[in-house]
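Structure ticket #2291
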Amino acid sequence: MRKICLTAAVVLMLGCLVSVSAFADSGFSLRARVTGQFAGNQSFAGPAATINASVNSGFAIGLEGLYKIIPNLQIGAGLEYQITRQATYNGVSQGNFQFLPVYGMVRVPFAFGPIEPYIVGRIGYGIYSGDSTYTVSGLFATNAGLYFGAGAGIDYSLGAFSVFAEATYGLNDGSLSASGVTVNTAYTRLDVSAGVSFAL
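Resolution: structure written out below.
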């Protein structure tokens, strides 16, 4: 099911980008980024207690399409692939997990010549999975949940394209369920990204 959802999201995203690429200088842009994800923490809230596990640093790659509504407001959509990372509690590995967010976004730029600071917000749905250790040999099912990100960045125009860097707070909610028992999870971290943007 996770693969079907991810495939559908990729096809939808690419279809939207292809459909708008024919409109040169129409306000559409495509952004690709690589993200380092640091200071990770994942909480597990069960029926009896809540624990907080540390999460090792990881990486993600993302693709986004934006449309300029007015000079200082862009809206768009994107998807992100997080490389698996490990949760650890009291020095013991809890296994590896990952989220694959699909989201809508808002970007508010403030142009000063070739330099463009901006603030950005993302909200959507994060497809959730874990290895056999994380899911206790498949006893627990992973259930997708809310994805949220917010922060700021800066673009620098190089003419035909621009490069950018940004820092955001990231959150992925989800849950683990088995035999009527649900454990709610929340994965938080600092996302630091660098990427390139092209006008379509």
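Closing remark: The chain has one helix and eleven strands.
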